[in-house]
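Researcher: Please predict.
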Amino acid sequence: MDAQGRGRADNIDPADQWVLNPNTGEYELRLSSSAPQSGVPRPRRGNPAPTGAGTRQGQRARTAPERDRQAPPGTDVPGPRRRRGAPPEPPPGRRRTKPKKSKAKKVLLWTGGSMAFVLVAASAAGYLYLKHLEGNVTTTDVGSAGKQGFSKDEAFNVLIIGTDKRTGKGNEGYGDANSVGHADTNILLHVSKDRTNATALSIPRDLIANVPDCPTKQPDGSTKVIPGTDNVRFNISLGQNGRDPGCTMRTVKELTGISVDHFMMADFNAVKTLTTAVDGVDVCLAHPVDDKDSHLKLPAGESKVEGEQALAFVRTRHSWGNEGDLDRIKVQQQFLGSLMRKMSSSDTLTNPSKLISLAEAATKALTVDTGIGKVSTLKDVALELKKVPTKNISFMTVPVLDNPADGKYHKTVIVNPAAAPAVFGAIKDDVSFTEVKKKEKAAKDAQAARLKGTKSAASEVRVRILNGGAAGGSAQLTLAWLQNSEGVQKSENAGNAPAQLSRTTLEYAPDQAPQARRLAAIMGLSGSALKPGKSVTNSQGLPAMTLTLGKDFKGAGEPLTAATKAPDVDKSTADKVKCAS
């Protein structure tokens, strides 16, 4: 039986039987995996496969003109050239058959269509799940107390508030039975602009502070101003007299001078659900604890806590240090560091089940401001925080002193006027409390370079002064000081800036760099305040620099040099394991 007949008999396309032998470079006829191939002629490379011309069937397949064109016997006539890489031509006398799709191609086509369907379905499911998560989040409109959106390109401050309100199943025995939800635990989280570091500053609940007047949004859309109160515990900045988290944000600004962009508030349930979602948090105790008030019972050394036990751990006070709130804060900081390590671990991030549980727990447990109320925005906040190495996340507490008004009982504390301003200033100036290497050093070097070089004489400095957020009249006072005390006669008051700035800036053209250095030296401006750009035209028609006095402006003649090194304070970092004592 010839190839064509054998192929039909076995239901095999004969064209598929001519295959290229990679060892010889020739096409060979392979009738089957077991059929012998001896005696089968091998066509020369580049020629068509044998046609079976000597067979009766092959003769019948040719037309008469084709037979007339046959070469004489013994003449070696090469066949037509085949394009390189093209499959061999089918033998003459046989109808050209349509190539069959291989099983692999059929599988790819089928799965390709199915995969597209799966991706569309997954996208739809992801969208619906995102909407489901957004339905979990509770938001509060804090108005001008915070920002209306979130920027990935700026440093940001988030106030984390833990309330003592007895909401949720199983929390009836915790906290104050009649509490309206005070600010029991408060952490101001500052994340640096370059994401190399973050600072978590704990604010004691018993810290004496001034709570300012606070506009609050009412259910009917109106605004009600809650009158402020001076010399009261910080914790009543929330809940008391109807105060919302925006009031606590304003109190932080009043206390520290640091603007708060957003807030996240959680109750007792948050600790229980978040720790359960990550299968527990590792803690360490320097001594065994059996606390009758919190019902925490743990041995010395390392343990894993979750749910009710985790809540008991962070609420325990009488088993640590001097049994006060300050020592409990330290233990809470150690707990949060461990929780951060667990949430950012590969064991959590590569486990879809844990991630879903964590997403559900976090969105159900949190109340946030409307500026970050969408799940997509909360995800952005989390991803920006994730960029910060845990070794550069510092935990510390506002430096305080015992309140002299308490006498010998020490119920409350006050801000330490000698140590606290430096801490607040470092956070405002985005200075790290940990050693941040290459990136921070490069930024400092660039700032220092701007201040180096030749300086013009004060009499050659031309500058227009704008008020961009400083106290009223600051531009005129600065003008008078520069002209009368410092000899900068070519200066003028240009009024208010088009927009307010948080920091004072000096913009100058490249050829004005010597003037900029002189004015920076006179005013005590840091390198970060110098802004290379364009010159403007002053009232005499001459090019001048632009000095914009920002919200950080302290007054004419007072230096504005930003801190370059954080003060030495008692702190811990999120990467270190410490045992509660």
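Model: The radius of gyration is 39 Å.
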